[in-house]
Amino acid sequence: MEVTPFVWIITIAVTIAFFIYEFFTHVRKPHEPSIAESARWSAFYIALALVFGVGVGVVSGWTFGGEYFAGYLTEKALSIDNLFVFLIVMSSFAVPKIYQQKVLMIGIVIALVLRGVFIAVGAALIENFTWVFYLFGALLLVLAYQQAFSHGDSNVVDGRFMRFVRRHLPVTDEYHEDKLTVRKEGRRWVTPMMLTIVAIGFVDLIFAVDSIPAIYGLTEQAYLVFTANVFALMGLRQLFFLIGGLLERLVYLAQGLAVILAFIGVKLLIHALHKNELPFINGGEPITVIPEIPIWLSLLFIAGTIAVATVASLRKTRVDDRSAVDRV
Questions:
Q1: Is 233 exposed, middle or buried (0-12, 13-18, 19+ CB in 10 A)?
Q2: Which of 12, 84, 95, 243 has the greatest CB tally within 10 Å of its CB?
Q3: How many C-beta atoms lie closer than 10 Å to residue 292's C-beta?
């Protein structure tokens, strides 16, 4: 897939333009978006992502189109998990609802910048060191295990990083509208809004660690990795307000994501064997006994896992709700 510098420049410029438009039309004036507003914009961004994927398939071939869609689905699922942590962070800091849009927007921009850095580093590693596929595959298997069995055990707000921040920055007890800092008694103070954004930036860094290796397990095209991440993050703010209550009902989302990460980890290890150049593995020769997993199977597996996790979660919470009513 050939992507010229001009296409890269246009893509990045359009991405920046979208976020600037979002800020000035929706975020600049503090308000809590309605369900109708959130639904319209969520549908718009999802439709835009699908149209772009079809365009990739038509212009560059459906192998690359399939890679994009598999990457987009994976990143969207991981982004929804990201939203769940955002919800916990903003609840812990008691962010007023009218200011949550600003926090989310800044958090999403931070996520995009961090993922951009990780994408560039990942592309350089893959280009020069084929053994990195072993590293990515092993990392995803470890992350899959943690996702399945340690999800929700740590509290970012009370973690070491945030305790360090609180010790070294003077923090006000109350919010001052949506300001990040205020001047009091001749001294500059940090508001809880700033702490919330710092916490969300830290969360973004953690999520980028599993997000980028995961999508590189589905495509080696840096352009598809970038655009899949952009479209997964676009509309995430509106999706937060649209499914905020639903997030708490997706009780099996962590397990579903763990299955996806483990699947991609295995896919990466198989790919690493096919590209093998390490002298201590099969004398530095490729191992092709195990066939590589085709992209169409990856796409079906990822979509199916997300569907099963969602249906099972909603069924479980429905049963729990009925049991709670019966006990009353």
A1: buried
A2: 95
A3: 12
Beta bridge partner(s), residue 189: 182
Distant-in-sequence, close-in-space partners of 272: CB < 8 Å, separation ≥ 6: 130, 131, 133, 134, 137
Give the separation between CA 185 and CA 263, rounded to whole angstroms: 56
In whole angstroms, what is the distance from residue 152 CA to residue 89 CA?
12
Distance CA 210, CA 138 (A): 11
CA distance 232 to 251: 21
DSSP string, 33-56: PPHHHHHHHHHHHHHHHHHHHHHH
| Element containing residue 184 per DSSP (H, E) | strand 181-184
Neighbour-count burial of 1, counting CB atoms closer than 10 A to its CB (0-12 exposed, 13-18 middle, 19+ buried): middle
Burial 77-88 (b: 16+ CB within 10 A, else e): bbbbbbbbbbbb
256 in Cβ contact with 306 (< 8 Å) = yes
State pTM to two decimals.
Answer: 0.80
